[in-house]
Amino acid sequence: MVTVISLGGSLVAPEGVDEAFLKDFTALIGESLRHDEKRRFILVCGGGGPARIWQRAYRNISGGGVDEQADRIGVMATRLNAQLVKAIMGEWCLQDVVIDPTQAEPITGRVLVAAGWKPGFSSDYDAVLLAERFQAGTVINLSNIEQVYTDDPRKNPDAKPVGAISWADFRALVGDEWTPGKNVPFDPVASRRAADRGLKVIFAGGKNRENLRKLLSGEPFLGTVIG
After folding, report:
1. pTM
2. How far is CA 196 from CA 2, 133, 171, in A?
3. Which tens digit of pLDDT belongs to each residue from 41-56?
4. Looking at domain 2-226, which CATH architecture does it have?
5. Counting beta carbons within 10 angstroms of the beta carbon of residue 206, is it exposed (0 to 12), middle (13 to 18) or buried (19 or more)?
6. Residue pLDDT, tens place only, 64-88
7. Could you give phi then psi for residue 23, rounded to 5 degrees?
8. Half-sphere exposure for 118 (CA within 13 Å, toward CB)
9. Numbers of helices and strands, H then E, in the chain
10. Which of 171, 162, 103 is nearest to 134 (CA)?
11. All structural domains of the chain with their residue ranges
């Protein structure tokens, strides 16, 4: 059983590295691996704070905008976070960080760690490609919010959380275009491919350890099912 997790950079490194989260997350992965010897995890890391900070510096210094250079900087931030997560996973992760999801080799350990591939989409898209490659019908998307809302709750006080949403309705919320650093629950490019391939995405908060344990164990959980 392969479980693909798109691990939001906002969890790994919201500004600096969130060591407490990574300790808890690693312990939870270990608990799941011990409980089911056949289980394998693919962890795809986002860019988080390092991506935003370095992209902002690029724009401030060069006067550049939301362009390919900013996107490339974001991709490199995902690789820094992924290398950290691979190191933390220790003997569970025997392979190098996956950069190109279309060339990923079979998992030889218990955990495979991946990062951003190239400009044009976020690490969410890489997670979708890896789910296809390893025949996983679901991608778990973990971020710093618990559920998908009908609108941005920071701007609209009437926005409401949803427990389940169709791909058509979700894509109406996030649009079709990707821009570097875009703050949406799931990358629009990834959403389009996941919808086309009939994949399911489960959106949940990463810092609620008990809720995440329930999700990984197949118990009722707080989150949003897309698809």
Report:
1. 0.94
2. 21, 15, 12
3. 999 999 999 999 999 9
4. 3-Layer(aba) Sandwich (3.40)
5. buried
6. 777 889 999 999 999 999 999 999 9
7. -65, -45
8. 4
9. 8, 9
10. 103
11. 2-226
